Write the structure tokens for this entry.
Amino acid sequence: MSTSEQGARAPEHLVFVTGKLARARLEKVAAGLPADRFAWTIADAGVKVAALMTEEIIRRRVRIPDGATRILLPGRCRANPEALASHFGVPVERGPDEIVDLPAHLGLAGRTVDLSRHDLRIFSEIVDASKMTPNAILAKGLDLARRGADVIDLGGLPDTDFPHLEDSVRLLKGAGLRVSVDSFSLDELRRGAGAGADYLLSLNEENLDLAFETDAVPVLVPMRPDDMPSLDRAIERMERAGRPYMADPILEPIHFGFVDSIARYREVRARHPGIEMMMGTGNLTELTEADSLGVTALLLGMCSELAIRNVLIVQVSNHTRRTVEEHDAARRVMYAAKADSALPKGYGRALLALHDKRPFVQTPDEIATLAAEVRDPNYRIAVAEDGIHVYNRDVHKVGTDAMAFFPDLNVESDGAHAFYLGAELAKAETAFRLGKRYVQDEPLRWGAAADDEAEDTTAFKKAGHTKHSGPGGPPPGTRDAAKVPAEADAAPPETVDEGAARAEAEGLTETPGDRPARIVCGKLVPADEA
């Protein structure tokens, strides 16, 4: 084997920058990385909490070994990766928030997740457009487009005049939006096409002549949902003319032909392998009182299998208020999974709203060990399989009822602190009961069902009440950490290579025999020397 071939196969040397409290867990995860792909070093900056490391601390206290190829910071570390890369001369990136997610971050899930692509067009219907003003329609259309819609569909209502249809189409088109018109009225369809609509929904073999009077692309439907021969005849006519079109066999609601309608989509695809198709998902999402995210994921999985590249969605019911975002997330996940010839698993958390695949990132034993390290009065809150953990230097309590912690927290006379802890514990209880990830001072993540809060990853969290704010405590509205430099209790920095870490984990290194121990939450755990 040539020298260049040997070099090409050399494992990548990663440097994990961390703090004292996270080091043991990081070593455990890093020890499980495949040695043929990764060599690694842990650079302990000497501070307890890795999230509090600044660029200055890392520059002064971390030493990067020779041969390092990439430096990973903790996900919650606010230091600027670009600035540190310039300082060390090695690429620097922010890793995952949770250590347990490190293997997936390094691509060990077997794939690189790219959710930037999709091949499905979302038509989002404004069902009551005929009752809205043109300006209101424009504002609604722009909002739908911001959420992920590709085409704004103007829905006509039976026995309701739509005199401002042309003005509405022109306004939307003037704003750079694509427009479709959906109406039972042939006159409205013709007027919408004349005003510049891009698509017409829904034409059948009886009114198909309109498709030859305009450049708007028609969406063909059967005369009745079960009349597939009528849809076939309309398709054949458009094929003979060589004109673009889509076909929609019509999705029916549950108990009103749902299963048969799914079969019809399969049959149409089998008879016409290369045509463009549409599925209107609203008959299932709107007419089934179930969380719509899972319903949407299933329907778009069907679209992915059948190469249906257009969906018509509608939002009338309050329980489907996020339907645009849900369809947008699902189309990206399904596209990526199909491109990888894989199951739609391991492509992020956008399709998980109520539960998380890995909700508990620490075990009760790991939390107990961390609790034994704490030397300050600030409360930490974590969630594990056995419940909610609340601890500081004086107390470590575990429970499942947020309100039951109150008598043990000594905040009866401290309203600000009690309010903070109450809010955090209620959030932790919600996470525990649902099986969601909880991170103190972070919002719960609801996938596509709710917007994530915008976050500046280089800025520290806003001050809050984590410590008793009565006499002797910090002023209200400040954090204890805001007054104490991050290095105030710093130990000397330490760089631990892979071999030393593995030896220590296997008990091969000498350990002091006189370290004191403490009972924490019913477990004997080591305690640091003062």
Q: What stands out?
A: The CA atoms of residues 72 and 93 lie 5 Å apart. The chain is about 35% helix and 15% strand.
